[in-house]
Amino acid sequence: MTAMVGEIVTLLIMAFALGMDAFSVGLGMGMYKLRMRQIFKIGITIGLFHVWMPLVGLLMGKLLSEKFGTFASIIGGLLLIILGVNMIWASVKKGEEKIITPTGMGLLIFALSVSLDSFSVGLSLGIFGAKTALVLLCFGIVATVQTWAGLLLGRKVQAWIGSYSEALGGAILLAFGLKLLYLFF
């Protein structure tokens, strides 16, 4: 029972870290005075992508795990570190963000862009043998709620919060990657 609670807490923290980019981009998009119906649709779409992308990653990770064992586990930890560093680096870069309209194809591109990192994490979790349904449930719900929170909060606050939240998410993923590598060395 304690192991299950620990796994749930770990997955929720990872889901929170992965949802930070959706939250931060949602802050900026929320300033467009979107209607509540649009906000609802954007959140659901992001949530679905945060289910679909790690599912593909999990399946590929389990396949790699069976083939490559411990080596694949080390690669999974390195992926989390690279992803965390990338998120921190992206939050530091200024003036390179492009605005995508959150409708139609723009919404799909937006959803894909903020959920690509969940594919890599899903790959790592698949290598470590995480419970698929639990991962997908945590990632999907947390990403949806964080997207809604970002869009709604974006209507109220300035955009400066966005870069800090993405850096925090990157730091959390970096810490998990270092922890996983520490277990092997």
TrEMBL record:
One of the Pfam families matching this protein, by short name: Mntp
Membrane topology reported for the UniProt record: Multi-pass membrane protein
Membrane spanning stretches: 12-32, 39-59, 71-92, 104-128, 134-154, 166-184
Source taxon at top rank: Bacteria
Main subcellular location of this protein, as a coarse class: membrane
UniProt cross-references to InterPro entries, sorted A to Z: Mntp/YtaF, Put_MntP
Cellular component aspect of the GO annotation: plasma membrane
Single GO molecular function: manganese ion transmembrane transporter activity
Keywords linked to the UniProt accession: Cell membrane, Ion transport, Manganese, Membrane, Transmembrane, Transmembrane helix, Transport
Coiled coil: none
UniProt subcellular location: Cell membrane
Database matches in PANTHER family: MANGANESE EFFLUX PUMP MNTP-RELATED
Family: Belongs to the MntP (TC 9.B.29) family.
Function, in words: Probably functions as a manganese efflux pump.
Record's protein name: Putative manganese efflux pump MntP
Taxonomic classification: Bacteria, Bacillati, Bacillota, Bacilli, Bacillales
